């Protein structure tokens, strides 16, 4: 059975990729994922806010002068290990690359184009097989137009692509007025891959505590429908690699994403729930499914149920909507 696949021009031993999570925030964690059989690993993101904090700290230290260096450190707020700066991140990256024989992908998370180039170059120099741009931006200002939001993504991509030679993927949110158009513009502007989709961790309100709360909820299988639909629509319409993420729990979810047209299937929630060893369960289940369906390679299954480029994508989505309404009427109608 041939599970090998291509993603971002990289040859992977299988289409299963560990997306950024606490499992990959240490060399030991990356090793456990690789030993479990994962095809590639995405490190947790280096955040723009961390880089700003680091730059502000350096500026304050420079202003204080060398004589007060030690004392000035006490004026800075403590920083948790998970918020370590770029030097710690690059150390993790280089050590992880040396420790495993699968591609290690670095991740940058931010919302502006400023300051990304140097850090992307440093990631490449540290051995990153590729860079994932996790552009986590949900505009809260009603004066910001959709065109401005789209241009921000293009500017960040252009800035990073101008200084690195390794592949660059963009992790998108689904919240655009025309997601397909944004995807095509990014691919035409040099994005080697698109990761669909980012999950926004919006705050919520606790009515008992009268407080705003925040937290992370692991994804559910139901959330896979949106990225799967867009991957099926984009498969024959963009040149960039397509990575699926969100809603992966078992091998059936992996197979469904491949049939839609995903080059790789990323997962974090399933591995956090069940541990890195769940990788083997997913791969064994995928192999069993391929045997039952008569596929001898992942390539034979990939995109089998994608939307042909000659079809009307809008009509495809509309037909799915109408079919769902009809089924709901039959099932729940009086």
TrEMBL record:
<feature type="domain" description="Dihydroorotate dehydrogenase catalytic">
    <location>
        <begin position="3"/>
        <end position="287"/>
    </location>
</feature>
<dbReference type="Pfam" id="PF01180">
    <property type="entry name" value="DHO_dh"/>
</dbReference>
<protein>
    <submittedName>
        <fullName>Dihydroorotate dehydrogenase-like protein</fullName>
    </submittedName>
</protein>
<dbReference type="InterPro" id="IPR050074">
    <property type="entry name" value="DHO_dehydrogenase"/>
</dbReference>
<keyword id="KW-0560">Oxidoreductase</keyword>
<dbReference type="InterPro" id="IPR005720">
    <property type="entry name" value="Dihydroorotate_DH_cat"/>
</dbReference>
<keyword id="KW-0285">Flavoprotein</keyword>
<dbReference type="InterPro" id="IPR012135">
    <property type="entry name" value="Dihydroorotate_DH_1_2"/>
</dbReference>
<dbReference type="InterPro" id="IPR013785">
    <property type="entry name" value="Aldolase_TIM"/>
</dbReference>
<comment type="pathway">
    <text>Pyrimidine metabolism; UMP biosynthesis via de novo pathway.</text>
</comment>
<keyword id="KW-0665">Pyrimidine biosynthesis</keyword>
<keyword id="KW-0288">FMN</keyword>
